[in-house]
């Protein structure tokens, strides 16, 4: 999805049946009215998603808006690559206290996400992730994704 300047939500109703059950890649670029992509219950239906790229969406504050009281642990179990680029208002991947388990995540690329102080408020398990790509050639890793994102936020010249 690209250049959808009036798009305000990806899916506006809670699904009664899984939507896009076979979606493997999702690229969202230049969608300037979008504030979040999915609710937590919607994201649970995207269990085949391997690549998520979110770029140049100036109003996005979070990728997943959580449903109050829900503490899901496995979202996007097949996710291998996550790209977050040019998202000036992105604060967290998911702002509510939710634990994530991403057993297959291997690549994270971030660039120009100045408002993101930590990736998640709660625990994040990414056993295969060994670095965060900041530029094409520059990588950083401080043992986990939350610490790495926090360090990048506190040291903008990295």
UniProtKB/TrEMBL annotation:
The keyword Aminoacyl-tRNA synthetase does not apply. InterPro entries: At4g27190-like_LRR, LRR_dom_sf, Plant_NBS-LRR. Pfam families: LRR_RPS2 (PF23247). Residues 2-58 form the Disease resistance protein At4g27190-like leucine-rich repeats domain. It comes from the Eukaryota. The keyword Cytoplasm does not apply. Gene3D superfamilies: Ribonuclease Inhibitor. Coiled coil: none annotated. Keywords: Plant defense. This is Disease resistance protein RPS2. It comes from Cajanus cajan (Pigeon pea).
């Amino acid at each position: 999805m690209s250049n959808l300047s009036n798009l305000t939500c990806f899916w506006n109703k809670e699904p009664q049946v899984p939507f896009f059950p076979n979606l493997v890649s999702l690229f969202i670029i230049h969608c300037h009215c979008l504030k979040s992509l999915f609710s937590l219950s919607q994201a649970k239906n995207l269990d085949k998603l391997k690549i998520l790229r979110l770029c140049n969406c100036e109003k996005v504050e979070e990728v997943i808006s959580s449903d109050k009281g829900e503490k899901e642990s496995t979202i996007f179990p097949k996710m291998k690559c996550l790209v977050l680029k040019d998202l000036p208002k992105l604060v967290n991947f998911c702002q509510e206290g939710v634990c994530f388990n991403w057993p297959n995540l291997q690549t994270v690329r971030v660039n120009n996400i100045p408002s993101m102080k930590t990736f998640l408020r709660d625990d994040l398990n990414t056993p295969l992730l060994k670095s965060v790509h900041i530029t094409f050639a520059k990588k950083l890793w401080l043992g986990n994704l939350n610490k790495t994102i926090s360090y990048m936020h506190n040291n903008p010249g990295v």
